[in-house]
Design brief:
Blueprint (H helix, E strand, L loop, with lengths): L1 H5 L6 H9 L15 H26 L2
């Protein structure tokens, strides 16, 4: 999962669940809005990764 984040790929929920199993209890901090810090970080990452995909598609469609 960390490799996908580094390469700015979209991280799927199953990958997050697998990664979360490896975390210690103190690494599963909750945020005010519900969910965990990990959930929020992955959500923010995926929004950015989707933006990159959108830009790529836009450029690819213009090159035709």
């Amino acid at each position: 999962m960390l490799r996908k984040m580094l390469l700015e790929y979209i991280v799927r929920p199953a990958e997050v669940e697998e990664f979360e199993k490896e975390l210690a209890d103190h690494q599963r901090a909750q945020v005010e809005s519900g969910g965990t810090v990990l959930d929020r970080a992955v959500r923010e990452h995926n929004v950015g990764a989707c933006g990159k995909v959108s830009i790529f598609w836009s450029l690819a469609s213009r090159s035709r």
